[in-house]
Design brief:
The complex is a heterodimer of chains A (227) and B (338).
Chain A (H helix, E strand, L loop, with lengths): L1 E5 L2 H8 L4 E7 L2 H4 L5 H17 L5 E7 L5 H5 L2 H6 L2 E4 L3 H10 L4 E4 L1 E11 L2 E6 L15 H4 L16 E2 L2 E5 L1 H11 L29 H9 L1
Parallel strand pairs in A: 2-3, 2-4, 4-5
Antiparallel strand pairs in A: 1-6, 6-7, 8-9
Chain B lengths: L14 H7 L4 E6 L7 H11 L5 E4 L11 H10 L4 E6 L5 H13 L4 E5 L20 H14 L16 E6 L9 H11 L3 E6 L3 H13 L7 E6 L5 H10 L7 H10 L1 H4 L8 H27 L4 E6 L8 H7 L11
Parallel strand pairs in B: 1-2, 1-8, 2-3, 3-4, 4-5, 5-6, 6-7, 7-8
Classes of the chains: A alpha/beta (227), B alpha/beta (338).
The structure holds iron/sulfur cluster (2 copies).
Chain lengths: 227, 338
């Protein structure tokens, strides 16, 4: 899922400027699961903004609402009245949610309350780790199900580099060396031969390097037309 | 080794290739470009190293700190009559920039290239930079070999004129994790086209001998020239730092003890009573011992079958190279006629 974390309150206050009526919009999907921007967090952020504004004598009216998914028009349409009543929208969705609001409500100013950080998963209570960089050409089939693109600091396809030590990456002892993990897993499964083969340069055109990406599925478009 | 040699039997005909091919025990050094536009400093360092090494590595933004470019500095080194080994990392350039720089380097007279992944930018003085890592060091080895042997670019397109021909090097980290995999990674680099290998610093001879035994059993020493990395220690503190902080370097206690013993005459003087002269003399004693240890290491490395030479890393201490090479009985450097 998409992992995000809240921006510092100071930054949020700066983004809100002097706009009076603020609508905080949470999202019920990924950012709820990672405790960054669900209904609970939206209520807390709204309360913090209210309190800080009061302390600084900034006139302000703050409400909060949470939709099931900020990245789909139909859920945003459910709150269009509240949006039109506000001067500014503080989105607690991921970057996609913020942009969905901006696109659906062209006359409304929207600012992000979160930093969208990565695609990952929780590994223990309160810890999330990056797992995928959405490179568009998945190599997990040759690396034993461990991603070297997102999890090796240098995205090496023929790792490990010389900086691997005691299972961690040279850049930080808190980060696992992806290539040590790959080595261990292939070794356990008796498939180390896979590491002897030289992997050619990656085709990065399927990742962001190829420009903004788009998928069009004609089968689904036709089905929608027939309905 | 590749079969794509010229009529004279050399892949490239660089001094380094000639010395190695003739079977001499090779010596390479290292020249770190300045953190400035000072060409004079390169000339100064080149003068110190000339005659003591067969070729010198010119580092490429080493430890991710911005310095004069390796090709820029290498051009000055060529002018000074010393042979450069251009280091190129995959951190700062994508495949377009790498290839165009290689064409320029060749046109400017550079003939040896060392392919590296590169230290992560978080170590250096621009930690907020974006990195590249479009290709990795093995893919770079392959790219440069294909340029030379098939006259093609990474895209597969043919050169429109003379190709860039480099004697291709790669690094090896015999003691980095996972250590069992290291000889296989070396094999992979050689299969990708590496003609010579420079290893990470070796202080632990028995551990390196075990690695070389595996390397020989795989026949790798017959497919590429392996140069063992050595470097003079400046102080016991530096030895401990390398042992504890730098991944992939083993420093036996024996070596640290030798460095400590070198400062025995000052050991009983309380720290605050050490005069500036004392400190100077102690530092000199450490440096002298560091050089002696380095000479001893080279002498032991010469005895290990499959070691084709040494790569002396004395960065910011280029003056140490001459006494080391001389002490190890490796002077004068051979001159190989074409
Ligand atoms: S290889 Fe690409 S698609 Fe597969 S997990 Fe890694 S980044 Fe994601
Ligand atoms: S130490 Fe491991 S994870 Fe870190 S850059 Fe090297 S190979 Fe990648």
């Amino acid at each position: 899922m998409i992992i995000a974390e809240q921006k510092p309150l100071d930054e949020i206050m700066g983004l809100l400027g002097s706009d009076e009526r603020v609508l905080v919009v949470g999202c019920g999907t990924c950012v709820t699961v990672c405790f960054a921007g669900g209904a609970r967090e939206a209520a807390i952020v709204a309360a913090s903004v209210r309190m800080t504004s009061k302390l600084n004598s900034v006139p302000r009216e703050v409400t909060d609402v949470t939709v099931q998914r900020q990245c789909e028009w139909e859920y945003l349409d459910e709150i269009k009245e509240q949006i039109s009543d506000a001067d500014i929208i503080l989105s607690l969705g991921c970057g996609i949610g913020v942009q969905a609001i901006a696109e659906r409500f062209p006359d409304k100013w929207v600012v992000p309350g979160l930093n969208t950080t990565f695609l990952g998963m929780p590994t223990e209570q309160g810890v999330w780790i990056e797992r995928c960089a959405a490179c568009g050409d998945c190599v997990l089939g040759i690396t034993g199900g461990i991603c070297p693109i997102a999890r090796c600091s240098k995205s090496l396809l023929n790792g490990p580099c010389g900086g691997s030590e005691d299972g961690h990456c040279e850049i930080n002892p808190d980060i696992d060396c992806a290539w040590q993990l790959i080595y261990d897993r292939l070794s356990r499964l008796g498939r180390l031969d896979a590491l002897l083969e030289l992997q050619p340069p990656k085709n990065w055109s399927t990742s962001r390097d190829g420009g903004p990406r788009k998928i069009t599925r004609d089968d689904l478009r036709l089905a929608a037309e027939e309905e | 080794m590749s079969n794509a040699t010229s009529s004279n039997g050399y892949l490239v005909g660089s001094n380094l290739e000639k010395v190695l091919k003739a079977g001499h025990f090779a010596v390479t050094g290292e020249l770190g470009p300045p953190q400035s536009a000072d060409g004079q400093e390169i000339r100064h360092k080149a003068a110190i190293l000339k005659g003591n090494c067969d070729a010198v590595n010119i580092t490429d933004n080493q430890t991710a700190i911005v310095r004069m470019s390796s090709i820029g500095a290498g051009t000055i080194v060529v002018q000074e009559g010393l042979e450069p080994i251009i280091q190129m990392t995959c951190r700062d350039r994508n495949r377009l920039a790498i290839q165009s720089d290689l064409l320029g380097a060749y046109a400017l007279g550079m003939r040896n290239l060392l392919c590296l992944t590169g230290d992560h930018q978080s170590f250096g003085n621009h930690p907020t930079a974006k990195n590249v890592f479009d290709i990795d060091s093995l893919q770079l080895v392959k790219l440069v070999s294909d340029m030379r042997d098939s006259a093609v670019f990474a895209s597969g397109e043919a050169f429109k004129g003379p190709e860039a021909r480099f004697f291709v090097g790669a690094a090896a980290a015999p003691f980095a994790d996972p250590t069992e995999f290291r000889p296989y990674r070396l094999a992979k680099k050689i299969a990708a086209g590496a003609n010579f290998i420079q290893t990470q610093l070796v202080y632990d001879i028995p551990a390196f001998a075990v690695y070389m035994e595996k390397v020989r059993s795989m026949g790798l020493h017959e497919q590429a020239y392996i140069l063992a990395g050595v470097g003079p220690l400046k102080s016991p503190g530096m030895a401990r730092y390398m042992k504890n902080q730098v991944p992939g370097i083993l420093v036996p206690d024996k070596v640290i003890d030798r460095m400590n013993r070198a400062s025995a005459p000052w050991a009983d003087i309380p720290k605050e009573e050490l005069t500036t002269e004392d400190k100077k003399a102690r530092s000199q004693a450490w440096k002298d011992e560091g050089i002696r240890i380095c000479i001893d290491l080279i002498n032991e490395l010469k005895e290990i079958k499959g070691v084709a030479g040494v790569h002396i890393m004395a960065i910011e201490w280029e003056e140490a190279v001459q006494p080391i090479v001389e002490g190890a009985g490796l002077l004068p450097r051979p001159v190989v006629a074409t």
